[in-house]
Amino acid sequence: MDRAPDKRDGENETDPDDAFDGASANRVDRRTRVDRRTVLGALAGAGSAAVAGCSGSKPDDAATSDLDPDRLDELAARFAPTLYFDAAEPWFPTDPRPYTVEEDGETVVDGFEAFDGYHERYDEAGEPPNPTVFYNGMRYEDSPLAVVQFWFYSAFDQFTANFHWHDWEVLHVFVDLDTGDPQLYVASSHSRSVPNNEFLDPDPDVVPRILPELGSHSSTLSVNEQADTFQRVGEEGLLADITNTTIDTVEDLLGIPIAYGLPRDEGARLPFVVPEYEGEPIYDHPDLPSVTEESLVDGALTIRSLDALRSPPTDLPLRETGIAYRYGDREDPIADETADEVVEYDLVESAELEEISAFTGPQLSFEFAVPQAVEDAVASHITTTGVPWEQPRYENPALDVTAGNHRSELAARYDAIAEDPSFGDGAAESLDAVVARVTQATESDEAPDGEGLTTTDAGVESFVLIESDPEAVPTFAGGVAVANGVPEGDHRLTVNGAGRTPHSETLTVSADEPVTAAGADGEIPLVARENARKVELSDAESDVDLTRTAVEDDFAGRIYDSAIDGSDAVYVHAGGAYTTEVRDADDEVGAYRVNPDPAASGSDDGDDSGETEDPIRIERPETGAAPLAGYVADVAEETRAAVAAAAAEDDGDGSDDGDDDDDSGGGSGAGGGGGSGGGPSNAVNGLERALAAAVDQAERAEERAREGDREGTNRQLANVLDRIARIEERLAAARAGLPPGLANATGKRIEQATKRVEQARNSEKL
């Protein structure tokens, strides 16, 4: 997309030195805004699909009108917030009017002009140029409820997943005009899909405080005694800085308030990506002479791309406070004591900006890698920010209340706020959201070396893209992913993270379920690129129509579960041992053993894509009793070989414990006590023979199934269950003679084999 013609020659360009008075200048006559407000009133009734966390129609709130000018100025001066910025922040709230140009008879703010002009002024002055906060006020008709909005404009937004020209953030202060008390603070988050940071019933004597996210300026609240830090959950006598709804529908997320917060202030690492335009770093663009690499977020926090690292970063600095912004006509001794530097800003009514029609600039984009049988990527284009005064929330700020408990409380207090069925008092019962916890997969100490996983906290935040929505959303609170307002239907969800291979799945959002848990039981484990192996399957050359696949690790359990359309690909940790389950259109099941060689991962083949070896391919997948029996034979043989190796390493004599485990299909009562009378070594040998017998019976069951002999298949499957019972007995006796990890793995594989035998017995398909 081409940008607007260069206007640096001054033609049709507003002289920035004559464009405005930095103080709160003469108030715009509100009578000149009637036409625009009439249009906005209609827009407010329609809204956008994802507003306020629900995908249905918008709440039927009362109409709004302008606040009395004197009262608005009084409230704006009283509640003008103090903002505490990260020490690495490049873009502070400023006035966009110096960067306006005329295009086709309309006044617009040009992205190149604003980005370059801001840095030119900053470099010349050595301090943030034109510090300004804009305000707007609305009153709900026939109600004492009013709202003062504080709008913050930044020249650029650099974040890992949504950098763009221009940036507008907002703080809504809901006030009772009768009492003068604030009712609710709502501070804007990253997108309409991520819940805002909100606080109910703030202290009326404390100036609102904002902690803007580095680079992206997402606005987190700070209401307790620690002015420049974020507290998600109250503890040690400190209030929590938000009162948002908590998640109560996903077991792993109980009690976590649903709001973005401030990851680097909560101990989570968050890398920033270098913005590119037309394939080159944006600071190399010829139309940005004042923008250099040093103009962006500090390089210590920055990576070139999400896939530039082989493992997640561990040395990114956490948040530190730098500059504080405070209203110039009010003292703030806390800011003076807390921040390295305090900058005074001007308050200007946003009505003075309403002649600006657009904030323009060419599209910037980033790519999300999507693991499929043939790897692809989704380019998600981030357009420039919208014009605040053309947004429905400008007229009806209640549309920006994203916590169900807060909407319900306002409705209970004021008739002007509708009690909407999309919101509720209960925790997450009204979210209409997709939620998950993103974790990291690592090897388990309980498993044999390289053959079992566990999942732990991610440590580094990731980014989630639902392809029906063009904006990616970041995780928060160490890996919590929430996307509000996801429409009913099928969606593909993709997760990317720095130094990690991507995860992608297809899920269905139902109108009957307020919360859809993504991943496997709400968890999405990601894998470091250095440890990743790709598993692929396709039904292109198969006789079945695959509709779903899942992956279970012996120790971590189910780590992947997704609907598919004939093919799929997933990255797994090379240090795990897996059962890959497939289902077809008739809901018949198949299973395959996947046990990567951990020594093969991380090899240097000159490819930075994260695929270090050829993919593990499941060729011509099948469903029914035959592949299930074949799976049982494979996992039993794998375990038998490991037990045999342990026995050989232990005594090397291959001694016989006298137990006669034949393959005749005899019941579990046959034989003696597992050879335990000969000591642990003999017991291990007995376990090996029991496993060998299970292999033989499972192979016979597979043969019978492929021959179409249902009676013979069922008989052999019953024999397999008998052999599994024998294995359980032998394992109990042999544990003392086995390495602990192998003993644990054998028990877990017995459970998995039993499950697959039962599926084979219940299968209508041989």
From TrEMBL:
Record's compositionally biased regions (Acidic residues): 604-613, 648-664
Domain of life, source organism: Archaea
Cross-referenced InterPro entries: TAT_signal
Region (Disordered): 1-32, 587-627, 642-717, 737-766
Bias-annotated ranges (Gly residues): 665-680
Sequence ranges of Basic and acidic residues compositional bias: 1-11, 697-713, 748-766
Name of the protein in question: Uncharacterized protein
Organism: Halorubrum ruber
